[in-house]
Write a structure and sequence with these properties.
Length: about 110
């Protein structure tokens, strides 16, 4: 599938629509999911246009991949999830029930868990 700039995460990254952005870096933007499935539910997206995890890990530069992965670690610390733990999920395609076709990782956690 070809990347389509009409997707909502492209618009969030480019500030065309508002969202609850928590943290940004050169290679990532992190904001709260509008339909949270856990007490803490944050989405982390790369700035570049990649459809899904495979597209990103195949075509992004080493700098983008490292910056994105380190960004996820920064968000985990920022949200206070390192102690209690968290889940990382990246849905892809029909089986993965992917809704937004800009690669993203869900961070799910609960800061009340010790
Ligand atoms: P999925 O593509 O299946 O990984 O799910 C996409 C997630 O994105 C879903 O949990 C809801 C969230 N989402 C969809 N539209 C928006 C939006 O406009 N703003 C925010 N913050 N989240 C959104």
């Amino acid at each position: 599938m070809k990347y389509d700039k009409g997707n909502v995460f492209y618009k969030i990254i480019n500030k065309e629509i508002s969202s609850d952005i928590l943290l940004e870096g050169e290679h990532f933007v992190a904001f709260r999911d509008v339909r949270p499935k856990a007490p803490v539910h944050i989405l982390v997206v790369p700035r570049g246009g990649y459809v899904d995890w495979r597209d990103f890990s195949t075509h992004a530069s080493a700098e983008e991949i490292a910056g994105f992965c380190r960004g996820i670690a920064e968000v985990i610390d920022f949200a206070g999830l390192n102690k209690g733990g968290y889940r990382l999920i990246s849905n892809s395609g029909e089986f993965g029930q992917q809704e937004v076709f800009h690669m993203h990782v869900h961070i799910l956690g609960d800061v009340t868990v010790k």
